[in-house]
Amino acid sequence: MTAAAIPIELPELAKTPRIPALRQELRIERGAPLVSGAPSWVLFDPVRHTYYQLGKIEYIVLSFWATGRLPDIVGALRDRGLSKEETDQAFHSVVEFASTNGLTVSPSGQDCVSAFMEQRARGQKAAWRWMLDNYLFLRVPLFKPAKFLSRTADFVAPLWSPRVLVFFAFLGLFGLFLVSRQWDAFVASFLYFFTWQGLIAYGLGLFFVKILHELGHAYTATRYGCRVPTMGVSFLVMMPVLYTDTTAAWKLTSRRKRLAIDCAGVAAELIVATIATLLWVILPDGTLRSVAFILATTSWIMSLAVNLNPFMRFDGYYVLTDLLNVPNLQSRAFALARWKLRELLFRLGERPPEDVPRRLQRGMIAYAFATWTYRLFLFVAIAVLVHTLFFQPLGLILAGIELIVFIGRPVFSELSVWFENRDRILRDKRSKVWLWIGGTLLVAAFIPFDRHVSGYAVLTPVGTSPIVSGEPARVVRVMAGNGQFVERGAPIVELEAPELNAQAASAKVRIAQLEMQLGRSAADTRDRSNRGIIERELQLEKEALAGLERRASGLILTAPTAGIVSDLSPEIHAGRWISGEEVIAQVVTPADYDVHAYIEEDEMWRIEPASLGTFVAADAGGPARRAKLVETSSAAIERLEQPILASVNGGPIAVDRSGDALTPRKAYYRVRLIAERGELSREGGQIQTTPGTVQIETEGRSFAQWFVKALVQAIRAII
User: Which residues in 112-218 belong to E strands, given as ranges?
Assistant: First the structure.
């Protein structure tokens, strides 16, 4: 008995005359096996140049539907073991799929053109919605290359030979080996291309390489009988990217052929890279060598770093799709990941959206989470780029729209599903726990717990008075030591200056002579006539002697203020000669201290004038004291003034040394605070400059603010 003779009831939808016929130009061909190994078919829509993969049930429904034998559908589905409800559901699903995707003609009595226009209108988005989805990615077809590819395919046919590919593989390895022998020269060549001329040259080289890349896809697809309808340019954040439409590759049942089409572009670039690398090694310096360098670097970088990326719809994604034999990998992996997330959080007990082997299911879920993470950073990077490239406030508006559409909308969509299932979710204890945890963390992320800005700092004395003789002299005795408290005017070091004593003795002799001349001026006519000159000379000599005596009295070095003697070198001892310019010791007033702190540029906006802070010494036993902000620099420092904080001296601030200059690798601003009274640490009787950190009180900042700020700064650094 045939299936058509089985007396069963048709699905309700099959009985109604409003079910339109399928379009006659649709074609169904045998496709590659499904992930489970079951056979599949491919439905081709030549009008839209679109392919749909079909399973056995969809194939049965569409096959009988196309021949007009609707009553036979039920029997065919019942033969596969489906119940009446499952048969009805399968039929309804296929009819809805065909209607939604415009695979049917108009119902009877309706104009075909108007029906098609209605379907097209239903599929079109509103202008504002289209702009939201496409202003970052827009595809513009430029020409139809099918005839050109067919006529010229024989010229490139030798490149598909396995021997040729193996030859170029060995040639590429050999070229990389030769470059490694001249690696310094190869790397140094990059410096030229950080100019406008170099960037233009790189752009032209990239354009040439990408043309060969797309031709590689197109020629390989043509070789395997797949028609290439269009080639053109896509605009990704206003950046032009060439593309080739190889959708027809999905009709191929051979996975090897599909992989060959996927890899053809990268293979073409690597062949160019191989030839250009060898030419760079062989050619002398000049224009040709620069061209070879451009082609080599653009080909290697674009092939390995960009095209093989599996997280975006570049070649690497399609290679992974065909390796796993999972068409529409991202959408199917995302559906599995969303299902897994809901099961982990809420234990809804739902079946997975599709049945795939467990090992493949885990891999697809892991791929989905990795792609989400990658896209999070990518879309934030694009938002920063859009904000930077466009004039304000348009750049800010577009960046906000991009984040809402590509990050906020998927998150909101998933939260909407949770809300729809709230009754089921709230019945499970685990769900309640997760909701409490998630809600608490979400609220905590926006609470401004962080109320301090940290910076590296040093604590130094403010009241520091140097002891300097000002005269070349010899030490007679040292009357104080490091760490000793002295009153103001107390002697610290006694010096003597023989030359100064000799000048004073000579001045005294001269004064005595002049006074003698004045005494006899009453009897001596000559001295009487020179009396005025003698008086002036006598006055000058007395003033000179007074100056010498003052200088001699200054050889007893005293404390200019009450404080603690510091930095008195052990080399200062009796009998030692000093030049008079060096600082012999310091007298430190222990009541006042400076805090010189260095704050990263990203944190300066949070600091308010006259803020309070706390200095904490790096040494666990060191001082910790309150301080008040008194000064901030208006620009980032060019040199680090506190060597104790430099990385070259074991400090926390990374610097580059150039002679005596220490240049920070990051942008730091210097701030100055006055610390409260207390004692500084002493080592060997000397008061030390104390390194540590300073915590400056600021307005609160939440974790969400910190994360967004850090993410934007990191992306700006990369860009």
Answer: 137-143
